[in-house]
Amino acid sequence: MATHDPEALRDRPIRTFGRTGGRALSPRQQNLLDTQLDRWRLPAPVAPVAQGLDPRSLFPGTRAVWLEIGFGGGEHLVAQAGDHRETGFIGCEPFVEGVAKALAGIEERELTNVRLWPDDARLLLDAFAPASIERAFILFPDPWPKRRQQKRRLVQPDFAAALRRVIAPGGQVRFATDVASYADEALLTFLQNGGFEWTAEAADDWRRPPSDHVTTRYETKKLGDCAPVWYDFTCI
Ligand SMILES: C[S@@+](CC[C@H](N)C(=O)[O-])C[C@H]1O[C@@H](n2cnc3c(N)ncnc32)[C@H](O)[C@@H]1O
User: Fold this and answer.
1) CA distance 151 to 107
2) If you take atom 14 of ligand 1, which residue's CA is the nearest one?
C-alpha cells in the first residue's frame, strides 16, 4: 500500500519488497480493508517526528512493544499477539492482501494489541523514539537471490543501524532466512554493526527454530536454497 506523502516518496530508499497488490481481493478482504484498516493502522508519522514517536503511547497499559517487519500473511504476528496480549504489536507490510489477512486474524482472535503500518517499515523506524521497541522480528525477508538484486535486501548496514537505534538495550531481534547467501550477509551485517550480540549457545543453534517461533506461510513453501537459518540477537 502506498504512502501519499510527496516528501516521503522523494526520500524513499531503494525498494526491498516486490508487488504490493496483484490478485483480486475477496469481498471479505476488501470489506476488511474498507471498514477496519483505519481503526488499526498507525497514524502516519512519515516525516521524522522531532522528539520521536513513542510506540508505547499507542498501547495504553502495555509496557513492551514488539515489531514485525514484513509480516506477509500475518500468521506469526497474529499468533504472537494472541499469545502476548499484554504486549503491543506493530506489524509492517506493504502487500495489500497480507494486510487484509492480518485484519482477518485480528478480527478472528479479537485482538486489540496490534497496529498495522501498511508500508515500508524503514519509514516508520526513522520516526520512532530511540530505544522504544523491545523486540523485532524479520522472518524470511524477500531473498533477492540474484547478485544484481542483492542491493534490494532489507538487511543492510543502514537498516541495521536504524533498527539498533529503536531497540531498547537488552531488547531482542530475530532474523530468519532460507537463503544461504542472505544468512551469511545478514549475520555479518548485524555483527559488524556492533550493537547486536548473537545469543547462540550451541554450535548448531542457528539450525533450530526458536521454541517460541510460529511457522510462517512463506517458510512452509521452502523456496530457498537451504534449511531455515535462525539468528536471535540481544541489543547491547
Ligand atoms: C518473502 S515475504 C515473507 C513474509 C512472512 N514474513 C513470512 O515468512 O511468511 C517478505 C515480506 O516482506 C515484505 N517487505 C519487504 N520489504 C519490506 C519493508 N521495507 N517494509 C515492510 N515489509 C517489507 C514483503 O512485502 C513481503 O511480504
Assistant:
1) 37
2) 70
